[in-house]
Amino acid sequence: MDFLIRPISGDEWRLWRSLRLRAVEESPDSFRGYLARESAEADEWWIALISNTADHPRGLLLVAEVGSDPVGMLFGRLDSDTDLLDVGSMWVDPEARRQGIGSGMIEAAVAWARKAGATSAELWVTEDNEAARTLYENVGFVATDEAEPLREGSEVTVVKMSAAI
What is the pTM of this model? Predict the structure, then answer.
């Protein structure tokens, strides 16, 4: 499967919103947000959210596309006080999984972060999401001892994973 991974700019907020809502609907236990809450947000909320990240020098929003179809997303942010890349909002459409898209997005984010001087990365993954954990392990992440509920009151646990980059 041929795919393209590219950063988006703030003016592509509709694309990110569409991917994010698909992701939260398809994998609700993989995201801290709620579909009902996020789908009810006004356009202005999405515009601010996306532009504050995509157009910030320490922020990165990646999308993966197969042809003209968006099939994946990843958020990256460089911590302003450290050399750390925070990775989040990682998702690949189920029909496009196991094609190298997930690892490709992580590799693109890591390459971007290295250019900015980052030396490590971290992310949170749902404890029982074996496919995601395996993907992250295959690109060099290791589970830490840190774990917490996905959301307040949730029985779903997320685990922090980290990697030297």
Answer: 0.94
Tell me the CATH number at 9: 3.40.630.30
CA 107-72-69 angle, to 5 degrees, is: 125
| Residues whose CB falls within 8 Å of the CB of residue 24, separated by 6 or more in sequence, listed in order | 31, 33, 34, 35, 38
Residue 23 belongs to some domain of the structure:
yes
Tens of pLDDT along 13-63? 999 999 999 999 999 999 988 898 999 999 999 999 999 999 999 999 999
- Domain extent, residue 15, equals 4-118
**Residue 18 placed within a domain:** yes
CA–CA gap between residue 107 and residue 104 (Å, rounded): 5
